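Q: Sequence in, structure out?
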Amino acid sequence: MKKTNFLVLMLLVFFLFVGWYSSGLNVERTDGKIEFSAAGETMKYTIYYDADNDKFVIESSDTDGSQTAANVAEIADGGKDLDFDGEVNLTFFSETVSTGSTDMSGTQTFDLADGAYHTGTLTGATEFDLDGWTSGESATMRAELVNAGAQSLTWDSAITWEGGTAPTLAESGTDILEFESRDGGTTIYGRQLHKPTDPGTVVSLGSDLSGTKAIDIRDGGYQYGTITGATTLTFTGWTSGEAAELMVELVDAGAVELTATSVQWAGGTEPSWTASGTDIFSVFSRDGGTTLHGRSLVLDSQ
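A: Exactly. Output:
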């Protein structure tokens, strides 16, 4: 347990009891334990971290024997009650991990009752059912899937994907997906949290590019396509704190209007794209995509 978390908890509890006992608070720290009591009261409260059992403990005691068992079991002030049964365990947020098969295929049910974080390595066509949601409660489930893109996938019909379509998962690598529902699983919102970046992967953008096209560096470090209509390119998928470069090959980019959003081009101006031919350029970022630098590598027009 991190020491910082312990100190934060101590401060929170300190101010909590200050609010309850406006008459004052006596505080002492002994052997890693914090003891405090309200001025004029015979009750004492001790907070400490039990390293053997990895938990925080709050204990209450009567300093002079004048309190009844009922008094020791309850703190009340202004209608704010906190009941004790002698010990209160405080647990920081955590998720139970349900480790799945390393040979996953067929129908797989990810159930919140088994854990909020599920893992698995896919080796065959797989159908996913998401279960265990409680009506009237919001809940989140995550799935860590290895090599999922190499298999045929069928998703729970209740899932509404971010962007309208299920993400393309990695054929070789690890993807992390997140699912959330607040209506008992009638509607499940899904999105991709992480997908691996392989700078050596070559990805086709298609032979009929037009409109707005997001080029995600996580799909591959070299992406190519043919422009057939006015096109606006955006560049996504950058990782904060990591430097990365994306290479893009476009055919006939100069025949129509082409806009590369937010790119700061070498020399200060966007290249003159080729109306009939192939252009290759790179986009580089070292700050998670906040700043994009671009430069032309090959221009058939020159």
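The radius of gyration is 29 Å.
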